[in-house]
Amino acid sequence: MWGCFYFMSKRKYFLILFLSSQFFLNGLDIYSQEKKIISLGPAFTKAVDELNAQDKLIGYTSFCHLQDESYHKEIVATIIDVNIEKIIELNPDVILASQLTNRRSIELLSKAGFSVVVFQQPKNFNQLCDQFRKIAEITGTEKKAEKIIKLVREEITQIQAETDNLYRPKVFIQIGARPLFTDRKSTR
């Protein structure tokens, strides 16, 4: 196998070596404890913040905020538009993206050797918990995540018990004006 490199120019050999090292350094283990994370969505930033992993966060969108503003992070995107050059400059280990993130940007970052984790829009509480667990795995804060999920589930159970016998009026939620549009589920 090494014999094939003998015939390559030194320049090509170093390029292959560099690209393969970038693949292994950036793409192999997104679950290692020490990492630099970029969040391309406010929900992901909020999850990292709730997990007290702000020190791993190096960049986020212009719509993201942390509870403790002393943790200043680089703004690398809006929710849709991504500053590829800034992200490459920061050299993150993991990039958290959503379905709203520009697909072309995700493709370019992946081709550049970055680990990009794209989250689907959660449709229910269980999917939201699964997403939170995934972020906890990436940040190495699984135990903290399970405690938070347990507390939230207890709160939901308590609220459901307290409101179970209350009157539930029908509600109309208008989503669009021209044409008038609603989600049929909201009228039940």
Short description:
This protein has 188 residues and is α/β, with parallel strands linked by helices. It has helices at 3-6, 10-27, 42-50, 84-90, 103-111, 125-139, 142-163, and strands at residues 37-39, 57-61, 74-77, 94-98, 115-119, 174-177, 180-182. It has 7 helices and 7 strands, in the order H-H-E-H-E-E-H-E-H-E-H-H-E-E.
How would you portray this structure in words?
- With about 190 residues, the chain is α/β, with parallel strands linked by helices.
- The chain has helices at about 5, 10-25, 40-50, 85-90, 105-110, 125-140, 140-165, and strands spanning about 35-40, 55-60, 75, 95-100, 115-120, 175, 180.
- The strands form 2 sheets. It has a 5-stranded parallel sheet, with helices on both faces. A two-stranded antiparallel ribbon has the order 6-7.
- Helix 5 (about 105-110) links the parallel strand 4 (about 95-100) and strand 5 (about 115-120).
- Helix 6 runs antiparallel to helix 7.
- The chain starts with a helix and ends in a 6-residue tail after the last strand.
